[in-house]
Specification:
CATH class: Alpha Beta
Radius of gyration: 18 Å
Strand order of the largest sheet: 3-2-1-4-5-6-9
Largest sheet: 7 strands, parallel
Number of strands: 9
Structural class: alpha/beta
CATH superfamily: NAD(P)-binding Rossmann-like Domain
Bound molecules: NADP nicotinamide-adenine-dinucleotide phosphate
Strand content: 15-25%
CATH topology: Rossmann fold
Shape: globular
Helix content: 40-55%
Number of helices: 10
Order of helices and strands: HEHEHEHEHEHEEHEHEHH
CATH architecture: 3-Layer(aba) Sandwich
């Protein structure tokens, strides 16, 4: 991360959801390198504990770990209770945890889709609603919401997932404008395909991930965008051009093209 951005959260506390893998882990590493103190959360505590030990040894920062399954609607309040109990004032909330579910809508289980909506959308709203009041009160604070380029369009065979990311994107852009006058910055980070555990979790075909970016690159773009006061940032020039060109074409055409690319029967 460039020197301009590395010091923005130095000595301040950041909560990072989904810090056990992929983009969340890369965000945690870059924040730690900039001197931020971290609260890492996800379900896999072993990974979080190891990351916490590594980052505190390498960067001399304080790191706390709190295991939480965001499928549980109570989890966001438990995360807040943990940080409040430790007297932690959260300057940066990173809503990163999320997952996809690939396939025909009638073949993905209803429970899986509802869990996805809970983790990708409801937990984002809950955590934001829980942490933003203190930020507004003190007149500063930052929120990064990891959306996706999938949030700009329909993505057949990833329909519910793309809809959750559209929610994240529109929610982030809306509250960025609302909270600006209170000194609170909000940015939607929109990655394209990124090499993480996402593909395996979503059971998505390899071909979609051929031109994937690294999690480190995506994390840097997100933190830079937030530090620069952007309300939305797309990682990767190609992804940015793709989103821009989609605005010019009929929506049904875009959905059809995406459907051709994503169709499960092709390999
Ligand atoms: N990879 C991509 O191509 C891509 C593209 C655009 C946007 N994104 C977005 O980037 C974000 C991070 O995904 P990633 O690519 O880094 O995937 P990843 O490597 O699979 O990481 C997902 C993270 O979310 C956590 N998580 C998943 N379910 C959870 C739950 N029920 N409760 C708490 N934490 C949970 C996981 O931790 P545990 O399993 O330990 O709980 C993990 O730390 C997601 O919001 C995703 O939608 C990814």
């Amino acid at each position: 991360m460039s020197a301009n951005f590395s010091s923005r959260w130095a000595g301040k506390w950041a909560v990072v959801t989904g810090a056990s893998a992929g983009i969340g882990l890369a965000l945690a590493e870059q924040l730690a390198a900039g001197g931020a103190r971290l609260v890492l959360t996800a379900r896999r505590t072993d990974r979080l504990q190891k990351l916490a030990a590594d980052l505190s040894a390498k960067h001399g920062i304080k790191v706390e770990v709190f295991a939480a399954d965001l499928v549980r609607p109570e989890a966001p309040a438990e995360i807040l209770a943990f940080t409040t109990g430790k007297g932690i004032e959260v300057e940066l909330l990173v809503n990163n945890a999320g997952f996809g579910a690939f396939g025909y809508v009638h073949e993905i289980s209803e429970s899986r889709m509802l869990e996805m909506i809970q983790v990708n959308c409801s937990a984002v709203v809950q955590l934001t609603r829980l942490y933003v009041p203190a930020m507004v009160k003190r007149g500063h604070g930052d929120v990064l919401i990891v959306a996706s380029v999938a949030g700009f369009q329909a993505v057949p065979f990833n329909s519910a997932y793309a809809a959750t990311k559209a929610f994240d994107l529109i929610f982030a852009e809306g509250i960025a404008e609302e909270l600006r006058e209170f000194g609170v910055r909000v940015c939607a980070l929109c990655p394209g395909t990124t090499t993480t555990e996402f593909q395996e979790v979503a059971q998505q075909p390899d071909r979609v991930f051929r031109s994937a970016e690294t999690a480190e690159k995506v994390a840097r773009v997100g933190l830079e965008g937030l530090a620069q006061g952007k309300s939305c940032v797309i990682s990767g020039t190609k992804n940015g051009l793709m989103v821009a060109s989609e605005r010019l074409a009929p929506r049904r055409f875009i959905a059809r093209m995406a459907g051709r690319m994503m169709r499960p029967t092709e390999s």
